[in-house]
Design brief:
The chain has 355 residues and is of the alpha+beta class. The protein has two domains: 209 residues, 3-Layer(bba) Sandwich (FAD/NAD(P)-binding domain); 128 residues, 2-Layer Sandwich (D-Amino Acid Oxidase, Chain A, domain 2), CATH 3.30.9. The chain is 23% helix and 31% strand. It is built from eight helices and 21 strands. Strands 1, 2, 11, 12, 13, 14, 20 and 21 form an eight-stranded mixed beta sheet that branches. β20 and β21 form a beta hairpin. The two termini are 25 Å apart.
Length: 355
């Protein structure tokens, strides 16, 4: 394969958005996406794909706002599998405190919804929240890259087994044989931080991998059922209309797991923990937690996404702390801004676009 200007290692939603951002900024650059499985098949395929505009820090709020606008535009341009949803935030805090975190907090509403089976804890209040949606994240990643197939080389079933550099080019050794030379490389590996090809490079970032669990509730949502966010518990109840059930995401506190070691089946303790948290608000719904999904995600010490140059021309992008889908457009924008992607004339020549 001919040398490329940019190689993106990882074909999840963050890798797909980086490719989209790179092509938009540098349309003549030669870009390749390398994914050891199928596009979107890793952590993206197990993501709840929920977007609500919030952020605990100024940077994350700015990233959330940027991503909100990009997802709105791309949803229309690419006909992405995204569904808008009404939302309610439940908290014992006050509106002033919440409005710092949530960018589109609306009016206060009833702190209970008997028809949907939940009520706020003592002292809890509820507010509407605007600008929310959820997505089929694997489908989003696939559709974004499908729209770039005339401009981006997509290599599935292609594992990068070694990374080296001679100063001018990065050399990617490929598992099926052969190699790829790239002027710039982005690592977007999701929770695969300990892969031998880049573990030593990533280690100084201090990232950790945490188990992520979401329970599935045996209850069919109505078309107008909202997303309910339990702010104090960092949990949410999401109606998955297309799948015909609710998803309950809660904070699982099991750290330093490896994605290839995490069993995809639930453990008994996973459901017990989900029922205990949901039971504080909706005991009737808690009894319906009988299945779910399991995986893991990368977290940073600051709880902000990481875009960091590991060595000249090699950038890590990720560690989104469970918000990879929600913040992917902003992560992509920061990543491309960190790269000098101006094509080298003798390497990348303008190509004819398909009409």
């Amino acid at each position: 394969m001919d040398p490329v200007d940019l190689a993106i290692v990882g074909g999840g939603v963050i890798g797909a958005l980086i490719a989209h951002e790179a092509v938009a900024a540098f349309p003549d650059a030669r870009v390749a996406v390398l994914e050891r499985g199928l596009i979107g098949q890793g952590a993206s395929s197990r993501s709840a794909g929920v977007h609500f505009p919030r952020g605990a820090t100024a940077r994350v709020r700015s990233m959330s706002e940027h991503s909100h606008h990009v997802w709105g535009r791309l949803a229309t341009e690419l006909d992405l599998p995204i569904r808008e949803v009404d939302a309610t935030v439940v908290s014992t805090g006050d509106a002033d405190a919440l409005s710092t975190t949530y960018l589109r907090l609306g009016d206060e509403t009833a702190p209970a919804d008997p028809a949907r089976g939940w009520s706020a804890p003592p002292g809890g209040r509820a507010w509407t929240l605007h600008g929310c949606h959820y997505a089929d994240v694997q489908g989003v990643a696939g559709r974004v890259l499908a729209s770039l197939r005339d401009q981006v080389t997509v290599l599935e079933g292609t594992e990068v087994t070694e990374l080296s550099s001679d100063g001018a080019y990065h050399r990617l050794t490929l598992g099926q044989g052969g190699e790829l030379l790239a002027r710039r490389v982005v690592l977007a590996p999701g929770p695969w931080l300990a892969h031998p090809a880049w573990a030593d490079l990533v280690a100084p970032l201090g990232l950790r991998v945490k188990k992520v669990v979401a329970a599935h509730l045996e209850s069919a949502p109505a078309p107008d059922d909202p997303l309910t966010i339990f702010q104090d518990e960092d949990a949410f109840l999401l109606p998955l209309h297309g799948r015909g059930h609710f998803l309950f995401s809660y904070t699982c506190d099991r750290w330093d797991v490896a994605p290839d070691d995490v069993e995809l089946a639930l453990e008994r303790s996973d459901l017990d923990d989900a029922r205990a948290v949901l039971g504080r608000f909706a005991p009737d719904l808690a009894a319906r937690c009988n299945s779910g999904r399991v995986f893991c995600d990368a977290y940073s010490p600051s709880r902000e996404p990481v875009v960091a140059e590991l060595r000249p021309g090699l950038v890590f992008a990720g560690a989104a702390n469970g918000s990879g889908y929600r913040l992917a457009p902003a992560i992509a924008a920061e990543t491309v801004a960190a790269l000098d992607l101006t094509p080298t004339p003798n390497l990348s020549q303008p190509r004819q676009r398909q009409s």
